């Protein structure tokens, strides 16, 4: 009877350690951002140079031309919870999530994965590719080839999604009918560790595995 208790204790200990590590990363990130902001401000004041950046209305212009069909959503919450979350999008594009992320280092999952862990991976800058039973075996194989070995990507079946294939990043989503759609590669190029990422550089290994 002691084994389940030990397993539960070990899991909670791991989650506690992950939380402490995330807090340490957040403190380091704030220091780096504050230092960078101060240097930028000093350069602007000294040189009298103002840099103006612009973004597209739809938010789909990231590292190149806008990608047709990309949807962006308002900034979702980011709290850590250990209970199920009712997400407004299917698959979810962000929101409160489990403290433990899903491994997203080119991982190809053959069974559905927990939303709450997958959303944590999106927060780290991963792109999640999902598909339903309308996707052909050739499509699934082609998608797996795009994911395997590519850091900050992962894929899994998602039987309840409406679109045949869905690509999801934090607050961003694209639905396509075929793995051969050129927008698949464009989305990966634009949104893997893209500017939408709340926690760029956070790990995609050492998390939950299926």
From TrEMBL:
Residues 1-24 have a biased composition (Basic and acidic residues). The chain crosses the membrane at residues 31-52. It comes from the Bacteria. Keywords: Membrane, Transmembrane, Transmembrane helix. Residues 1-26 are annotated as: Disordered. InterPro entries: DUF3105. This is DUF3105 domain-containing protein. It comes from Kitasatospora misakiensis.
């Amino acid at each position: 009877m002691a084994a389940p208790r030990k397993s539960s204790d070990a899991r909670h200990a791991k989650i506690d350690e992950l939380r402490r590590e995330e807090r340490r990363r957040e403190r380091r990130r704030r220091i780096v951002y504050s230092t960078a902001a101060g240097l930028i401000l000093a350069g602007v004041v000294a040189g009298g140079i103002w840099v103006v950046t612009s973004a597209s209305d739809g938010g789909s212009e990231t590292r190149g031309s806008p990608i047709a069909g990309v949807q962006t959503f308002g900034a979702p919450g980011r709290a850590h919870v250990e209970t199920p979350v009712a997400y407004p999008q299917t698959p979810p594009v962000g929101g409160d999530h489990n403290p433990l992320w899903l491994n997203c280092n080119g991982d190809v999952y053959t069974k559905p994965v927990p939303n709450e862990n997958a959303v944590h991976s999106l927060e780290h800058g991963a792109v999640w590719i999902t598909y339903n039973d309308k996707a052909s075996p050739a499509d699934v194989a082609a998608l797996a080839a795009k994911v395997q070995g590519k850091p900050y990507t992962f894929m899994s079946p998602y039987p309840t999604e409406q679109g045949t294939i869905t690509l999801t990043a934090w607050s961003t989503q694209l639905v396509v009918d075929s793995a051969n759609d050129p927008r698949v590669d464009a989305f990966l190029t634009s949104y893997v560790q893209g500017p939408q990422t709340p926690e760029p550089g956070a790990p995609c290994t050492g998390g939950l595995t299926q």
